[in-house]
Amino acid sequence: MATAISLSFSLGPQTHHNYHQHFHHNTSFNSHKASIFNPKYTFPFVISSKSHTSNLIIPLSTSQSSSSSSSTTPSSVLQNPLQTGRFLTNQELEKLESLEKYRYFQELESGSLWVRVMREEEMDVTVWLLAESFAESKLMPKGYVKFLAYLVKQYMIERRAMRPHTATLLGFYKENGEDADLQLAGTVEVCFDKRGANANPPTPTPPKNSPYICNMTVDKQLRRRGIGWHLLKASEELISQMSSSSEVYLHCRMIDTAPLNMYKKAGYTIVETDNIFILLTLQRRKHLMCKVLPDSESPSEVNE
Protein backbone atom coordinates (compact mmCIF):
# COMPACT_ATOMS: atom_id res chain seq x y z
CA MET A 1 0.00 0.00 0.00
CA ALA A 2 2.79 2.37 -0.84
CA THR A 3 3.83 4.50 -3.76
CA ALA A 4 7.33 5.10 -4.99
CA ILE A 5 7.89 8.56 -6.38
CA SER A 6 10.92 8.17 -8.63
CA LEU A 7 14.15 9.71 -7.47
CA SER A 8 14.89 12.03 -10.35
CA PHE A 9 18.67 11.80 -10.42
CA SER A 10 20.91 10.41 -13.12
CA LEU A 11 22.80 7.17 -12.54
CA GLY A 12 25.43 8.28 -15.00
CA PRO A 13 28.73 10.01 -14.16
CA GLN A 14 28.46 13.64 -13.09
CA THR A 15 31.18 15.29 -15.13
CA HIS A 16 30.33 18.82 -14.09
CA HIS A 17 30.97 18.20 -10.39
CA ASN A 18 34.33 17.28 -8.90
CA TYR A 19 32.85 15.37 -5.98
CA HIS A 20 34.93 12.76 -4.15
CA GLN A 21 33.52 12.75 -0.64
CA HIS A 22 32.44 9.32 0.60
CA PHE A 23 29.16 8.91 2.41
CA HIS A 24 29.28 7.93 6.05
CA HIS A 25 26.11 7.06 7.91
CA ASN A 26 25.59 7.52 11.63
CA THR A 27 22.39 6.24 13.20
CA SER A 28 22.61 8.40 16.32
CA PHE A 29 23.07 12.10 16.85
CA ASN A 30 23.34 11.88 20.62
CA SER A 31 26.89 13.22 20.43
CA HIS A 32 25.62 16.71 19.63
CA LYS A 33 22.56 18.86 19.94
CA ALA A 34 20.58 20.19 16.99
CA SER A 35 17.62 22.48 17.20
CA ILE A 36 14.60 22.18 14.97
CA PHE A 37 13.83 25.84 14.60
CA ASN A 38 16.09 27.99 16.79
CA PRO A 39 19.85 27.55 17.37
CA LYS A 40 19.42 29.14 20.80
CA TYR A 41 17.20 26.28 21.90
CA THR A 42 18.93 22.91 21.85
CA PHE A 43 16.74 19.87 21.35
CA PRO A 44 18.12 16.33 21.41
CA PHE A 45 18.00 15.11 17.82
CA VAL A 46 17.90 11.31 17.81
CA ILE A 47 17.64 9.29 14.64
CA SER A 48 16.37 5.85 15.51
CA SER A 49 18.06 2.90 13.83
CA LYS A 50 14.57 1.72 12.91
CA SER A 51 14.34 4.59 10.44
CA HIS A 52 16.74 2.92 8.04
CA THR A 53 14.13 0.73 6.39
CA SER A 54 11.95 3.37 4.81
CA ASN A 55 10.37 3.36 1.38
CA LEU A 56 9.45 6.01 -1.14
CA ILE A 57 5.85 6.14 -0.04
CA ILE A 58 3.05 8.47 0.83
CA PRO A 59 1.02 6.95 3.67
CA LEU A 60 -2.60 7.74 4.23
CA SER A 61 -3.56 9.98 7.10
CA THR A 62 -6.00 9.01 9.83
CA SER A 63 -6.06 12.33 11.62
CA GLN A 64 -7.54 15.80 11.26
CA SER A 65 -5.09 18.12 9.57
CA SER A 66 -4.31 21.74 10.26
CA SER A 67 -1.17 23.69 9.44
CA SER A 68 0.61 26.52 11.16
CA SER A 69 3.39 28.70 9.79
CA SER A 70 5.83 30.76 11.82
CA SER A 71 7.51 33.94 10.62
CA THR A 72 10.19 34.09 13.33
CA THR A 73 13.67 32.99 12.31
CA PRO A 74 17.02 34.07 13.80
CA SER A 75 19.25 35.95 11.38
CA SER A 76 22.07 33.50 12.03
CA VAL A 77 20.49 30.83 9.84
CA LEU A 78 21.26 32.94 6.77
CA GLN A 79 24.94 33.57 7.47
CA ASN A 80 25.99 31.15 4.70
CA PRO A 81 22.82 30.43 2.72
CA LEU A 82 24.64 29.21 -0.39
CA GLN A 83 28.21 28.24 -1.11
CA THR A 84 28.00 27.89 -4.86
CA GLY A 85 29.75 31.06 -5.98
CA ARG A 86 26.83 32.09 -8.18
CA PHE A 87 25.30 35.54 -7.96
CA LEU A 88 21.94 35.87 -6.25
CA THR A 89 19.56 38.66 -7.13
CA ASN A 90 17.72 40.59 -4.44
CA GLN A 91 14.58 38.67 -5.32
CA GLU A 92 16.39 35.36 -4.92
CA LEU A 93 17.78 36.44 -1.56
CA GLU A 94 14.29 37.34 -0.38
CA LYS A 95 12.97 33.96 -1.49
CA LEU A 96 15.89 32.21 0.17
CA GLU A 97 15.06 33.96 3.42
CA SER A 98 11.41 32.93 3.03
CA LEU A 99 12.54 29.31 2.65
CA GLU A 100 14.60 29.48 5.83
CA LYS A 101 11.64 30.98 7.72
CA TYR A 102 9.10 28.43 6.52
CA ARG A 103 7.54 26.27 9.26
CA TYR A 104 4.69 23.78 9.24
CA PHE A 105 3.38 22.19 12.42
CA GLN A 106 0.73 19.54 12.92
CA GLU A 107 -0.59 17.73 15.94
CA LEU A 108 -1.26 14.11 15.00
CA GLU A 109 -3.22 11.51 16.91
CA SER A 110 -0.02 9.72 17.96
CA GLY A 111 2.36 12.66 18.22
CA SER A 112 3.50 15.93 16.66
CA LEU A 113 5.08 16.77 13.30
CA TRP A 114 7.33 19.71 12.41
CA VAL A 115 8.34 20.45 8.81
CA ARG A 116 11.04 22.85 7.66
CA VAL A 117 13.76 23.19 5.02
CA MET A 118 16.72 20.82 5.29
CA ARG A 119 19.95 22.26 6.67
CA GLU A 120 23.39 21.42 5.32
CA GLU A 121 24.39 19.33 8.33
CA GLU A 122 21.28 17.17 7.86
CA MET A 123 22.11 16.13 4.31
CA ASP A 124 23.85 12.82 5.10
CA VAL A 125 21.03 11.35 7.16
CA THR A 126 18.51 12.52 4.53
CA VAL A 127 20.63 10.92 1.80
CA TRP A 128 20.62 7.60 3.63
CA LEU A 129 16.85 7.72 4.13
CA LEU A 130 16.35 8.30 0.39
CA ALA A 131 18.94 5.73 -0.68
CA GLU A 132 17.43 2.91 1.35
CA SER A 133 13.94 3.89 0.26
CA PHE A 134 14.92 3.91 -3.40
CA ALA A 135 16.70 0.56 -3.07
CA GLU A 136 13.68 -1.00 -1.39
CA SER A 137 11.21 0.33 -3.94
CA LYS A 138 13.36 -1.07 -6.76
CA LEU A 139 13.92 -4.40 -4.95
CA MET A 140 17.67 -3.86 -5.04
CA PRO A 141 20.05 -5.82 -2.76
CA LYS A 142 21.08 -3.96 0.40
CA GLY A 143 24.65 -4.00 -0.85
CA TYR A 144 23.71 -1.31 -3.37
CA VAL A 145 22.54 1.17 -0.73
CA LYS A 146 25.96 2.76 -0.16
CA PHE A 147 26.49 3.16 -3.89
CA LEU A 148 23.03 4.72 -4.22
CA ALA A 149 23.78 6.99 -1.27
CA TYR A 150 26.86 8.28 -3.09
CA LEU A 151 24.79 9.09 -6.18
CA VAL A 152 21.92 10.57 -4.18
CA LYS A 153 24.32 12.85 -2.33
CA GLN A 154 25.74 14.14 -5.60
CA TYR A 155 22.21 14.81 -6.76
CA MET A 156 21.27 16.59 -3.53
CA ILE A 157 24.36 18.78 -3.61
CA GLU A 158 23.37 19.89 -7.10
CA ARG A 159 19.77 20.49 -6.07
CA ARG A 160 20.75 22.41 -2.95
CA ALA A 161 22.82 24.73 -5.12
CA MET A 162 19.62 25.59 -7.02
CA ARG A 163 17.92 27.16 -4.00
CA PRO A 164 15.66 29.17 -3.82
CA HIS A 165 14.23 27.65 -7.00
CA THR A 166 14.00 24.29 -5.28
CA ALA A 167 14.00 23.07 -1.67
CA THR A 168 14.15 19.85 0.33
CA LEU A 169 11.77 19.67 3.28
CA LEU A 170 12.29 17.48 6.33
CA GLY A 171 9.58 16.25 8.67
CA PHE A 172 10.47 15.66 12.34
CA TYR A 173 8.16 13.53 14.44
CA LYS A 174 7.84 13.26 18.22
CA GLU A 175 5.57 10.61 19.63
CA ASN A 176 3.29 11.46 22.52
CA GLY A 177 5.06 11.07 25.85
CA GLU A 178 7.69 12.98 27.79
CA ASP A 179 10.45 10.45 27.10
CA ALA A 180 9.85 10.20 23.35
CA ASP A 181 12.75 11.08 21.04
CA LEU A 182 12.55 13.42 18.11
CA GLN A 183 12.94 11.48 14.85
CA LEU A 184 13.53 12.30 11.23
CA ALA A 185 10.20 11.09 9.89
CA GLY A 186 10.40 11.88 6.20
CA THR A 187 11.49 14.16 3.40
CA VAL A 188 10.14 15.65 0.18
CA GLU A 189 11.62 17.79 -2.59
CA VAL A 190 9.79 20.74 -4.14
CA CYS A 191 10.67 22.56 -7.38
CA PHE A 192 9.12 26.01 -7.72
CA ASP A 193 9.88 27.15 -11.27
CA LYS A 194 11.73 26.46 -14.50
CA ARG A 195 15.14 27.30 -13.02
CA GLY A 196 14.59 24.68 -10.34
CA ALA A 197 13.28 22.01 -12.72
CA ASN A 198 15.25 18.79 -12.93
CA ALA A 199 17.25 18.27 -16.10
CA ASN A 200 16.05 14.65 -16.42
CA PRO A 201 12.52 14.44 -15.02
CA PRO A 202 10.66 11.10 -14.98
CA THR A 203 8.12 10.36 -17.67
CA PRO A 204 5.49 11.48 -18.40
CA THR A 205 7.39 14.77 -18.33
CA PRO A 206 5.81 17.57 -16.27
CA PRO A 207 5.95 21.18 -17.51
CA LYS A 208 9.30 22.70 -16.50
CA ASN A 209 7.75 26.04 -15.63
CA SER A 210 5.30 24.54 -13.09
CA PRO A 211 5.97 23.52 -9.47
CA TYR A 212 6.72 19.83 -9.01
CA ILE A 213 6.71 17.58 -5.92
CA CYS A 214 9.03 14.56 -5.91
CA ASN A 215 11.33 12.26 -3.93
CA MET A 216 9.01 11.88 -0.99
CA THR A 217 9.71 9.21 1.59
CA VAL A 218 8.42 8.43 5.08
CA ASP A 219 10.19 6.30 7.65
CA LYS A 220 8.92 2.74 7.44
CA GLN A 221 8.20 2.58 11.17
CA LEU A 222 6.20 5.82 11.08
CA ARG A 223 3.81 5.15 8.24
CA ARG A 224 0.02 5.43 8.47
CA ARG A 225 0.21 8.29 10.95
CA GLY A 226 -0.57 11.10 8.53
CA ILE A 227 3.05 12.16 8.07
CA GLY A 228 3.10 11.69 4.30
CA TRP A 229 -0.19 13.55 3.94
CA HIS A 230 1.20 16.53 5.84
CA LEU A 231 4.48 16.50 3.92
CA LEU A 232 2.27 16.86 0.85
CA LYS A 233 0.25 19.67 2.43
CA ALA A 234 3.41 21.45 3.61
CA SER A 235 4.80 21.24 0.07
CA GLU A 236 1.63 22.75 -1.37
CA GLU A 237 1.60 25.50 1.25
CA LEU A 238 5.21 26.41 0.49
CA ILE A 239 4.53 26.38 -3.25
CA SER A 240 1.68 28.85 -2.69
CA GLN A 241 4.16 31.18 -0.99
CA MET A 242 7.09 30.73 -3.38
CA SER A 243 5.54 30.37 -6.84
CA SER A 244 3.21 32.45 -8.97
CA SER A 245 1.92 29.27 -10.63
CA SER A 246 -1.07 27.53 -9.09
CA GLU A 247 -0.58 24.24 -10.96
CA VAL A 248 1.36 21.55 -9.08
CA TYR A 249 2.54 18.25 -10.61
CA LEU A 250 3.71 14.92 -9.21
CA HIS A 251 4.09 11.29 -10.29
CA CYS A 252 2.38 8.20 -8.92
CA ARG A 253 3.04 4.62 -10.02
CA MET A 254 0.04 2.80 -11.48
CA ILE A 255 0.48 -0.14 -9.10
CA ASP A 256 0.15 2.08 -6.03
CA THR A 257 -3.63 2.25 -5.77
CA ALA A 258 -3.87 3.47 -2.16
CA PRO A 259 -1.61 6.52 -2.68
CA LEU A 260 -3.37 7.19 -5.96
CA ASN A 261 -6.66 7.39 -4.06
CA MET A 262 -5.04 9.72 -1.54
CA TYR A 263 -3.82 12.04 -4.27
CA LYS A 264 -7.29 12.10 -5.77
CA LYS A 265 -8.76 13.00 -2.37
CA ALA A 266 -6.17 15.75 -2.13
CA GLY A 267 -7.42 17.18 -5.43
CA TYR A 268 -4.96 15.75 -7.95
CA THR A 269 -6.15 14.45 -11.31
CA ILE A 270 -4.37 12.26 -13.87
CA VAL A 271 -3.24 14.23 -16.90
CA GLU A 272 -1.02 11.65 -18.61
CA THR A 273 0.15 8.05 -18.17
CA ASP A 274 3.33 6.27 -19.24
CA ASN A 275 3.15 4.32 -22.48
CA ILE A 276 3.20 0.56 -21.99
CA PHE A 277 6.57 0.43 -23.75
CA ILE A 278 8.16 2.01 -20.66
CA LEU A 279 8.11 -1.54 -19.27
CA LEU A 280 10.88 -2.39 -21.73
CA THR A 281 13.17 -0.10 -19.72
CA LEU A 282 12.36 -2.08 -16.54
CA GLN A 283 10.38 0.83 -15.10
CA ARG A 284 6.91 0.83 -13.63
CA ARG A 285 4.25 2.77 -15.50
CA LYS A 286 3.47 6.09 -13.84
CA HIS A 287 0.69 8.64 -13.81
CA LEU A 288 1.49 12.32 -14.10
CA MET A 289 -0.97 14.10 -11.82
CA CYS A 290 -1.84 17.77 -11.46
CA LYS A 291 -3.63 19.94 -8.95
CA VAL A 292 -4.66 23.58 -9.16
CA LEU A 293 -4.03 25.13 -5.77
CA PRO A 294 -6.80 27.40 -4.47
CA ASP A 295 -6.01 30.79 -3.02
CA SER A 296 -6.75 29.52 0.46
CA GLU A 297 -6.85 25.86 1.35
CA SER A 298 -7.90 24.07 4.51
CA PRO A 299 -6.36 20.60 4.82
CA SER A 300 -8.95 17.86 5.07
CA GLU A 301 -9.04 14.51 6.75
CA VAL A 302 -7.89 11.53 4.76
CA ASN A 303 -8.46 7.92 5.79
CA GLU A 304 -7.27 4.71 4.21
If you had to describe this structure to a student in words, what would you say it looks like?
There is one protein chain. This protein is an alpha+beta fold and 304 residues long. Helix content is 22%, strand content 19%. It has 5 helices and 8 strands. The strands form 2 sheets. A 5-stranded antiparallel β-sheet has the order 1-2-3-4-5, with helices on both faces. A hairpin with a 3-residue loop joins β1 and β2. The termini are close together. Mean pLDDT is 75; it is low at 1-84 and 297-304. Residues 161-268 form the N-acetyltransferase domain. This is N-acetyltransferase domain-containing protein.
Strand content: 15-25%
Q: What spatial form do the alpha-carbon principal axes imply?
A: globular
Beta strand count = 8
Mean pLDDT: 75
- Which strand order does the major sheet show? 1-2-3-4-5
Residue share in helices? 10-25%
Ends distance: 10 Å
What sequence of helices (H) and strands (E) makes up the elements? HEEHHEEEHEHEE
| Structure classification | alpha+beta
Low-confidence blocks of residues = 1-84, 297-304
Counting DSSP H or I runs of 4 or more residues, the number of helices is 5
The Rg value, from CA coordinates, equals: 18 Å
Largest sheet: 5 strands, antiparallel
Question: Any key phrases for this structure?
Answer:
alpha+beta; 304 residues; 5 helices; 3-stranded antiparallel beta sheet; disordered C terminus; 19% strand; 22% helix
Summarize the structure.
The protein is an alpha+beta fold and 304 residues long.
